[in-house]
Write a structure and sequence with these properties.
The chain is mostly helical. Helix content is about 80%, strand content about 0%.
Length: about 240
Amino acid sequence: MIATLAKNDFQNIRRDSFMLFMFLVPWAILAFLRLGVPALDTALVARFPTFKLRDYDALILSFYVLLQLALLVGVLGGFLILDERDDGTLTALKVTPLSHTGYVTYRVLFSVIVSMVFLMIIIPLTGMFIPNKLPQLLLVAFAASLLAPTMLFFLPAFARNKVEGLALMKGFGILLVGPIAAWFITSNWHWAFAILPTFWTSKAFWAIYENGNVGLYALVSIAYHLVWIGLLYKRFQRKIYE
């Protein structure tokens, strides 16, 4: 049954141009960071000798890869659930050996695993990460991957169809922009963004570059995401079969 669901997912992604585009985005991001950032850094140094774009590697990676990839995987999963609700697949699952709990477990594990695989492959391949910090990256990648099931439950919990889901996506920007703002605020006011789960994930990632307390920030991020996942799952259960 799990193999059938996975096969159906890939077929749905292939048929939907928007979902296929989202699946290809990570590789476009990798190409930009691997080739575009070094070229842009060289050009900027030639014009502004005191400015080094590579000083912002942690910020760039956290924005373009760490958060966006997990967000994309979650959105992709959310759209798949909306599709399955619309075509009656979720109703049909009630009479199969796969229970609702089994279906949800598949969705959550699939989104987390795919997010982690993407992160652990793409971040080192950018050439912008510290090679001997892979164990810390694994912990942070797991924390970041929990953003995927958060979005996975958020979309079908609040959107009745993919059109409404696309509208909701416009509000996701705060999850990405908030940590960026916190990076540039040097006073204690940057803690105002601690309400965002992505803030703690970003802090954990930045701590790798700063030799900071990666574990503490990552654990807070994991705990905070689990709280959000629990709350959204309760609404998801109420709304999914309406």
